[in-house]
Structure prediction request, 103 residues.
Amino acid sequence: MLIYANKPSPDSPLGLTVGDIINDSNGFTLKVTKIKDGSIFKSSGLVVGMKIERINGDTFQSSKEGLGLIKEAMNVLKLFVYTKPSIGTVYCICHSKDETMNH
Prediction:
């Protein structure tokens, strides 16, 4: 999943807390542990528990390197994140014959 956030300047506060780097089946990731009110990520679709895999297309090998990529980014920040699929409502799409149309 791609998450986009507008970052007005390199000094803009992120309002983002990440956990230690994780080396799992998805490679090196940063786990999102908190998103503060007023964060540039608040309305981006990023949620606690997601794992950041790439930052503006770049991978990273440490939490320091990953956070550095986020902090140095300017303008649009693009995060490629992994999230577990959610379980939700299942819809059945059925075909009904529309008698007004000729097929």
